[in-house]
Amino acid sequence: MASTVLGSQSNRAPLGCGGTGDSHHGFGAEQSAATASMSFTSLSRGRKVALSTLGILVAGGSSLAFALHQSVKASELELHPPSYPWSHSGLLSSLDHGSIRRGYLVYKQVCAACHSMEYLAFRNLVGVSHTEAEAKALAEEFEVLDGPDESGEMFTRPGKLSDHFPKPYSNTEAARAANNGALPPDLSYIVNARHGGEDYIFSLLTGYCDPPAGVTLREELHFNPYFAGQAIGMAPPIYNEVLEYEDGTPATMSQVAKDVCTFLKWASEPEHDHRKLMGLKVLLISSILIPVFYYMKRHRWSVLKSRKIAYRPPK
């Protein structure tokens, strides 16, 4: 048995009559178009006018419905937050960990009175914004209900690193009763849960203003153009010098809002810095491996992939 291995540049025998499949496909498409054209032209004049009128009415009605839908959308009455130049928004930029530490202080002294962060534990602060000793001291400031003990009774103890941030209310009913029926949302993933992310949170915190002429709000509501419906039950939570930073940073309204937004960004994406670091490593390794794989594909594997084996029976 004799066989011959031919390279990728060998001439191959044509299959069937040259190009008949493509010509038949083109002929079929032209025939279909001609048939459709003939079917419309064969209609009577009255039917042509009726179909044309129907098409115009459908197109006009669709355009009118879309225009009316856009004009009455409630979201268009809201003020969209601008895009702020966050220090962590760059491709290789990390979060400002000093701002995370200050942001936790803002949450603790301002936000924690109404909002919970039930998915965040004190141990998550270690190595990010606080040392282990500092995080332990923060946890021990709170009394945690634990138990039951040996006698079956519940007891309180100082907090530990494994404990989650304490909730301001025992249940949702108590939270609504204390806030005029409004339920303060949990802030653990609030940045990812709101369209606009930290831009929206920053704009909401700093966007309180007097309602325009003709707008009347209930006594317990406040005007905020960035909130859905512009009427929000939360009073302005921050203002200049609302607290004092331990590192001496001036506690202006914009600085406080920026710090708490950075803290909430980290809470929503604790893997933020690690993800970008891994992405940088992947880019560096890929810049080395991709040329190697291209060379192997082009000069090694392509010869095996495109070769042709022909069998020639013995004479």
Description of the structure:
The protein is mainly α and 315 residues long. It has 9 helices and 6 strands. It has helices spanning 20-41, 45-71, 97-111, 132-140, 172-178, 190-193, 197-206, 253-268, 272-306, and strands at 2-6, 143-146, 155-158, 222-223, 231-232, 308-312. Strands 1-6 form a two-stranded antiparallel ribbon. Strands 2-3 form a two-stranded antiparallel sheet. Strands 4-5 form a two-stranded antiparallel ribbon. Strand 2 and strand 3 form a beta hairpin. The chain is extended.
Topology:
Blueprint: E1 2-6, H1 20-41, H2 45-71, H3 97-111, H4 132-140, E2 143-146, E3 155-158, H5 172-178, H6 190-193, H7 197-206, E4 222-223, E5 231-232, H8 253-268, H9 272-306, E6 308-312
Keywords:
disordered N terminus; mainly alpha; two-stranded antiparallel sheet; 315 residues; Cyt_c1; iron; 7% strand; two-stranded antiparallel ribbon
Q: Measured on Cα atoms, how large is the radius of gyration? A: 34 Å
**Largest β sheet strand count, sense and barrel closure:** 2 strands, antiparallel
Oligomeric category? single chain
State the helicity in percent bands.
Answer: 40-55%
Q: Span between N and C termini? A: 10 Å
Catalogue the unreliable spans: 1-27
Total helices: the number is: 9
In total, how many beta strands? Answer: 6
The rough form would be described as extended
Structural class: mainly alpha
**Order of strands across the biggest sheet?**
1-6
- Listing every helix as H and every strand as E from the N terminus to the C terminus, the arrangement reads EHHHHEEHHHEEHHE
Strand content: 5-15%
Mean pLDDT: 86
